[in-house]
Fold these 4 entries.
Entry 1:
Amino acid sequence: MWTFDGQYAQKSRFKQCGKRHGVELNACLKNLGRLVEALNGGLTLQQCCAFGFFRSEGKDVYRIAQTGVRSAHETRLYVYARITGSTICILTVGDKNTQQDDIRWCHSTADEIRRTDHECARK
Amino acid sequence: MNAHGNEIAEVARVAADLTERPVAELERGILEHAEATAIVNALEGIRVRKGLRQKDVAERMKVSESTVSRFEDSRDEDLRVGDLVKYAGAVGMKLTLFMEDPSLPAAEQIKHCVFIISDLLQKLTDLAKKHHDDPAIVNGINAFRSEVLFNFFTQYLKSEERVRTVFTNSPQGTEPLRQEAATV
């Protein structure tokens, strides 16, 4: 069963987004729930990429957009799919302006998580 | 709580820690949004499970891909019935209007569902009669009916286990359950 993990997340970003764009954040979180429901229902991550709100950003980092919000401030929730352990690691949340930096940070964090997992597996 | 509710509860729990907002408030916000987009999300879910891209649905609906994208980004209250019918058809589904009276007690809703299932099973029987000389179809229908019966009993027994706990803990003990069993 796929589960969530928030330990690697940029808390400050979530706190800020929750205050300024709470509706959009709720929509992203709802879609995150839909994603995990689909994974637990037997779909693969690749199959889930057919959802309009879900897109790969490379290195097992994915972007989840909000849907169903009128005049939305485009909000992007970034997650890392930790295949070993079937965990969706919530990383950060941003918008169009922070997109490039967010993806770079997420890739770097995903590399770090993978390094840690690899070291644990070797022990 | 259904599977969808479990995922939302879990997302709300993790997000509450990240946003430093109360879990209940987040869960309520996420659920409200889920309810406002339930139909659209269900249709998109069917499309994805059937392995169809937005492009495939657009071709079948004879509209642009961005039209399909906008449809899937809508709220239920913004949908037009005509678009719903076309989208459902494009993903191989037939749109049937089923209205639920939330004020009805669960028992009445269950009875209503039983009648619907009975009608649908009758349709299967009619199909089997129509194709009585095709063993593949008849055997397929038989196998499906067995599967339905198995799934129904599995879910019913799980439900009975949960109810048994309530009866065991109630002042009347298991007497209501024994009386119920005697009538079956």
Entry 2:
Amino acid sequence: MDILTSYGLLLIIIAGVVGFLMAWGVGANDVANAMGTSVGSKALTIKQAILIAMVFEFAGAYLAGGEVTSTIRKGIIDSNYFVDVPELLVFGMISSLLAAGIWLAVASYKGWPVSTTHSIIGAIVGFAAVGVSTQSVEWGKVGGIVGSWVVTPAIAGVIAYLIFMTAQKLIFDTDKPFENARRYVPFYMGLAGFVMSLVTILKGLKHVGLNMSLAQAYSTSIAIAVVVAVIGRIAINRIKFDPDADKDTHFANVEKVFAILMVVTACCMAFAHGSNDVANAIGPLAAVVSVVSNGGEISAKAELAWWILPLGAIGIVAGLALFGQRVIKTIGDRITHLTPSRGFAAELAAATTVVLASGTGLPISTTQTLVGAVLGVGMARGIAALNLGVIRNIIVSWVVTLPAGAVLSIIFFYLLKFIFGA
Amino acid sequence: MPGNSFLSVFAKSPLKPIEQHIDAVDACCQLLLPFFEAVLASDWPLAEQHLGEITRLEKQADSIKYELRMQLPSGLFMPVKRRDLLELLIQQDKLASQVKRLSTLVIHRKLSLPSPVHTAFKQFLLASVDSTNQAKVVVHELDSLLETGFKGREVSLVENMITELDKQEDKVHELEQIVLDQLQQHEVSMAAVDAVHSYKVVEQIGLLADTAEQVAMRLEIMLAE
């Protein structure tokens, strides 16, 4: 307890700095995955992708990041175990941030794919289970989270498959694909806007202080959907199309319409990613702040300090603005044969799944969800070739991340205990 | 980020190289027309020149084939079976070697056909080369098939094209029969070995259409999944 009174402010500052750096890492590391499909299918330029990411990652983090942050802050650990030793919770959370941040830096440097979510969860479970007691972890909740890591890619895959099928039935497999594309794509845009708005309003906005009734939530979402669809229709009408299209270039024109749609889904993807991953950085920070500012009391129900979500959001934006360009550049020329219609199906499915998870407070891996969605489109025979080997490597690396994060976190935990003489 | 990042999940499409390969093979086949013009006019230097072109194009097709085989490792998840793609490539390749073999055969013994047969022969040749061109058009539908997820109207369209190619192959063999009949009538005025040589050449031109149909059949098998 004394440690907290003497060093409270210092600890908050340390946690804040490390949390900010972690958010930075989340932005730099994940932006390629979130925006990659849009850049790779030539629907967006790199600059446009970064710009969209900056705006929508911030929005997602700030408006919809609250639930997942709460889970990471207090859902994984049984607070009762820390009532007498609150400083251990503070040390533990800071160690987790340090561990996840360092693992993230190392992996990015070496080019390994890493899930920021897996890193932080592994780190938190690590310090709590080993550093304190295996019973201080809410294993039920952790089990549910790990279960969701398996389930969400599957869900995204199914949704992507279905979305792709509707596009085939409504647009590609008709005798006037181009006209149908112009007619139906605005509906897809509206749908994207609707889902994002509805989930955010129903689940996310509490932390910003906005409370709407169910009817208001639905009507606002529908209104936003209509606005998006109308803007989309206008944008579509402004593209120059080749009127003498024979069948080959006919599909090329259809893809141009989908490219506009991909701008919308890219925004959704950035928003969803921000909403789910900001918590990886600021969830632990929020725990530290909550414990210190309550004088060592661990309250079951505490609100998020007002500056925490913005701090995380700014960190993500800084990370992706400064490093994102470099990372996305390496993607640009490497993708062949990814057309907007496939990219859109995968992206919308992934964004929907992630935002739903954010709404229910589940921290999931955006990249894993995207992989699941892409596989879903592949199952519908929509993608020319997918590297199964790479998918296997990605899965292996994620599994490894859990113990890696845990080990690092335990080391830092004991280090902090030693430094502060606990 | 390279190698294992999310975007490496997307592998290079094998469909484009297959289309490039059939383009090279078809260019080879089209060269048979000017080649035989020169042969029937007994303009052997010109015929040799065309043979050189054919050989060059066949080598080009070969290098596309080698590259494609290298970028088709077994860990790829594709909308068509890897085996089916390789079978298609094999048939396309067979077409190219048949063209080369045919033209070499013609030059070696300096084919001489009785002039009354020339007209029927040219018609027959044209029909055969047309069938290889039709096969190329069918293979190019792979792009559109991918766009539509190998389902629906595009599939019916391709199946119709394959049926047309079937009919074309029948027509080629009808014309072949006419040429053979005419040759038989003029047999006595030809040297025995020349006659045998001519029969061989006619047979091989007919086989081109057969192989073209095989190419289309491979596509039909892919659609049957």
Entry 3:
Amino acid sequence: MIPVQAYVLLAAALFCIGVFGLLTTRSALRILVNVELIANAANINFAVFAQHHGHADGLALVLFVLAIAAAEAAVGLGIFIHLYRHTRTIDVDRSAAMRW
Amino acid sequence: MKPWQHKLASAVGAGVLFAIMAAAITRTTPWQEVGAGGAEDIAALAQALFSDYVIALEVLGVLLTAAMIGAMVIARPLGVPLDRQHYPDVADELLARSMDVSDIQHPAYLRGPVAVRPEAPPAGASVAVADAPEAKQGEGPEPEADPAGGEEE
């Protein structure tokens, strides 16, 4: 069968792709998408180790992480809608009022 | 910092991160993956979810509800008061007014054929700076001082 390390390497690769996409975008929606990608990379790790050890605890944690990511995406989208109504743009580089 | 420099630095950073993680992962002895159990996995998941983690499950439901309500409150239209009971006329009128989307300037590839293109609003009206929403939200608490008065035009 496929060794566990291949799956963990896949999760690490997805995590790094998500980090790269998160750092090199100005659009707020793309930031949300990349955050979801990073969370799903961690989900892969949870599922793989649950399968490896034979427990179902990792699978339950996968469900929790998915639900929490959904709640976070909803609140994040609400914030971005409000931001758009104030500044008429979703460019997060333009909304740097709290930075120097 | 130019955009390509930014992308290059991010790519190098992510690549270094992946190299460190890959070095740590491949140094361990390769385990053999157990085959997927199918239905037994789902039964075990349901067993764990409803016996060991049932409190977390219920709290997760409450969290999702709170997140949805919070998102609805955060994304409400500007200037609309929170309760319609005390400001019924103001709330409905402002809600109807805030639903007006005719001043949104879509990008060029979404505008449609030239014959049906709507007129562009003046540039000063659609660009909302920080004082414009504050002025609009200042109208919200105004009916507090004049509950029997007419709505502002």
Entry 4:
Amino acid sequence: MAGDPQAFEDFYHEYAGMIFNIALRQSGDPELARDLAQEAFIRLFRNLRKFQGRSSLKTWVYRVVLNHCRSRLSRRKVALQPLLDDQGRERDLLDERRDPEERAEAASSRDLIQRALLDVDTTYREALVLRDLEELSYQEIADVLEVPVGTVRSRIARGRDRLKTAVERIQQSEGRA
Amino acid sequence: MNAVTSPCDLEVLSAYLDEELGADETARVEAHLDTCHACRHRLDGLARVTETLRGLERAAPPPILEEMVLGRREVHGARSWSGRLAQMNESARRTRSTIGLVFAMVLMLVMFVYLFSLAQSRRTPTSTVISVTSEQLGGLPSVDRPLLLVTPQEFPDPAVLRAWQERQGVTEVRRHPAVTAAALVTLDFDALDCASAPSARQAAGQAGTSPRLIAELSLQDGAIRCALRRAPP
């Protein structure tokens, strides 16, 4: 693939959505997520020759992206940022065919859960994203994170508990029901 | 896994929610949930937050990401894919060049030191060999001083001494103590020529005895000298 532009373009289209969403949920910042995704693609491209096929390609891609996000974000405090379009207006990531009321409610809920997710420790957040957003099985998550299945189970459980606490805390601080 | 008991096990409930428990364990959890309100409440809480999280719709990557990754244009000062890759490749190339240059210099230095050491070790001894004829010695005086016997076994190549003795017609070789074993081993025997050997042999023959000649090696003025002596009767 390294010498085949078409193959690389196919690879991009296959994994761009997954990589961008991982970066977005880890960072909470669409613009940062865009840069993280581009950097992740560079790492993937440069290290593809080192991929030995001991795991599936998808597992390896997940692992590279998560490792990259972890190392880049460890030194900065992430905060939720809106996505701006080319004219600097806030862009809605949801399906624009929804009616305005639905979109407003969904945006509020989305904003709440994303903020709560950022309050959860990285270790637990990664497991939650892989399970509830990427829909990987416990075994697949164990392969990506290179930990035992029991550890995955523990991280998901604790992550959900922390997420629930974070949601309640945010709702209380904003006076929501 | 142990059966679920109160207080409810968070990990088991979470795995149950994900349908990641085995059949037996699932049955045990469901049986327990029928009787434990606390566990049902906790499970509901987990389910609500999980459902909310799963409700986060998948965001489409911005179109600009494709252009950045596939190298079609620069974006607001952010380097394009090709720009970033070119910069990383250039940096890697410079590093490789520097490492290669340093390696080549170290290799040249090692080769120079090796060749210099080799040249030093092959230098011929400075000792000068002077042949002394029996006439200069006034005949063939007998050996009357204690000398050290030189044997072929003292040499890395014993054949060197044997061959020289045969050429010179010398039965035995002896050395003064001043002629050290180390100097002897490095002596160039091809240049050590006891020129009086034929006449000495002839003189010994005239005495009616079997020619037994001894080469006596001594050190004089920093040089190894060779003199022929007749062996004592």
